[in-house]
């Protein structure tokens, strides 16, 4: 439950997502996270550092740790689902309901399968 508490905090996942490709400085992260105050960003970075998901580089930028990169891989299926879900919301309503309505047949697997 510790992970859910940390990741459920506003902006935590967004900060991790923005660091998925490459290290970034504080100002760059703040610009990428439209609407996040500097105090909230500072707090989230501190929490993510304390939990060893993010670390500071020698030049002062922030990057994902190995655990942070592993978490990033774990949430990629959520990103894929979210993209299909948004597309389904934008499509005309065909009577389908629930998250499974936006799963392509080729993506459907056994319950509990993670891709």
How would you portray this structure in words?
The chain is mainly alpha-helical and 115 residues long. The protein has helices spanning 2-7, 12-18, 26-32, 38-50, 66-90; strands at residues 54-56, 62-64. Strands 1-2 form a two-stranded antiparallel ribbon. It is elongated and about 55 Å long. It comes from Planobispora siamensis. GO terms for molecular function: DNA binding. Residues 1-90 form the HTH hxlR-type domain.
Short characterization:
With 115 residues, this protein is mainly α. Helix content is 50%, strand content 5%. It folds into two domains: 2-68, Arc Repressor Mutant, subunit A (Orthogonal Bundle); 69-107, no CATH class.
Main attributes?
115 residues, WH-like_DNA-bd_sf, DNA binding, 2 domains, two-stranded antiparallel sheet, DNA-binding, 2 strands, Arc Repressor Mutant, subunit A, HTH hxlR-type domain-containing protein, mainly alpha
Share of helix among residues?
Answer: 40-55%
Q: What is the molecular shape? A: elongated
**Main sheet attributes: strand count, strand direction, barrel closure:** 2 strands, antiparallel
CATH topology of the largest domain: Arc Repressor Mutant, subunit A
Q: SSE string, helix = H, strand = E?
A: HHHHEEH
Strand content: 5-15%
CATH level-two architecture of the largest domain: Orthogonal Bundle
Q: Count the domains.
A: 2
Instruction: Report the C-alpha radius of gyration, rounded.
Output: 17 Å
Distance between the termini: 23 Å
- Write the CATH homologous superfamily of the largest domain: Winged helix-like DNA-binding domain superfamily/Winged helix DNA-binding domain
Low-confidence stretches: 108-115
Number of helices, where a helix is a run of at least 4 consecutive DSSP H or I residues: 5
Mind telling me the CATH class of the largest domain? Mainly Alpha
Helix-and-strand structural type: mainly alpha
* Largest sheet strand order: 1-2
Question: Which whole number gives the mean pLDDT?
Answer: 85
Number of strands: 2
């Amino acid at each position: 439950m510790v992970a859910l508490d940390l990741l459920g905090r506003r902006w935590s996942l967004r900060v991790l997502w923005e660091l998925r490709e490459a290290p970034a400085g504080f100002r760059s992260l703040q610009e990428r996270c439209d609407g996040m105050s500097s105090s909230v960003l500072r707090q989230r970075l501190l929490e993510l550092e304390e939990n060893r998901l993010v670390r500071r580089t020698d030049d002062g930028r922030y990057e994902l740790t190995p655990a942070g990169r592993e978490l990033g891989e774990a949430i990629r299926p959520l990103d894929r689902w979210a993209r299909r879900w948004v597309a389904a919301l934008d499509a005309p309503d065909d009577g389908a309901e629930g998250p499974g309505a936006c799963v392509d047949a080729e993506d459907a697997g056994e319950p509990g399968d993670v891709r």
